[in-house]
Amino acid sequence: xxxxxxxxxxxxxxxxxxxxxxxxxxxxxxxxxxxxxxxxxxxxxxxxxxxxxxxxxxxxxxxxxxxxxxxxxxxxxxxxxxxxxxxxxxxxxxxxxxxxxxxxxxxxxxxxxxxxxxxxxxxxxxxxxxxxxxxxxxxxxxxxxxxxxxx
Length: 151
Hints:
Blueprint: E1 2-4, E2 10-15, E3 22-25, E4 36-37, H1 40-45, E5 49-53, E6 57-61, E7 66-69, E8 77-81, E9 87-91, E10 98-102, E11 116-120, E12 136-141
Parallel strand pairs: 4-11
Antiparallel strand pairs: 1-2, 2-3, 3-6, 5-10, 7-8, 8-9, 9-10, 11-12
Organism: Herminiimonas glaciei
Pfam families: GFA
Keywords: Metal-binding, Zinc
């Protein structure tokens, strides 16, 4: 479900799997920021993310059950629901003024809605490389099986 905001960006409603954590989000550039990452943590987490500015996420319920996970430099802040374990969003190391938001938490959205998702090269983080750039490691592609009806 979405509603409009004063700056014309849609307001998305989102929640963790169990519904204890609920939040709204305004995306920085719609769904054009969709991505995955191949760093050690993201590779295991497997989420598809989109970007939102720090001020554009409002936790409506369950802030007290959000658990913070940090590793390596401790710069990125990964939040997940301590009840169901679902990653909701994280403050990005590469863009600390933004959150990466788990698209699977956004109401009516799924990682499988995207035919192709770029995978950022996160094994060598842009902040750790000369020139601060990072490339695309590859693409994650999804093609629905036409023999299985969608619900």
